[in-house]
Every structure is written in structure tokens, then in C-alpha cells.
Amino acid sequence: MLDIIQDYLALCKMKVERKDGSITGNKRQRAINQFKAEEVEGKEASFVMLLSTRAGGVGINLTAAET
Question: Which of 13, 15, 49, 55 lies 20 to 30 Å (CA to CA) from residue 39?
Fold first, then answer.
């Protein structure tokens, strides 16, 4: 299901980060950093973070998440 949503968002030209059970530690931290980052030097910040319950228990802290 996340694959379909990610493909749709790519068609809409939205920058997406993804966190699910298939993401390793280094990729996970990079995704968090890119999502939290502001637009810098012409680089667009990520607009959507796709999360799965399979990402649970891997040290994700969403206290800084904005609604």
C-alpha cells in the first residue's frame, strides 16, 4: 500500500520520505533528517513522511512531529 501512495506522490512531484520495516538504521536517520530539514540552497524539503506500523520499535520518536 505504501508503494502505491509513494508512486502517486511522486507523480504529484511531492518529495517523500518513507519509514517502514525495510529501512535500515542509516537510511532511517537520513530520512528523519531530510524530513526535518528546511529548504536549503535550492534543495526542496520533504513534504510527506510515510510511516508504517512495521517501523515501530526501532527508536522512532514523533514528539517533534507537526500536525
Answer: 55
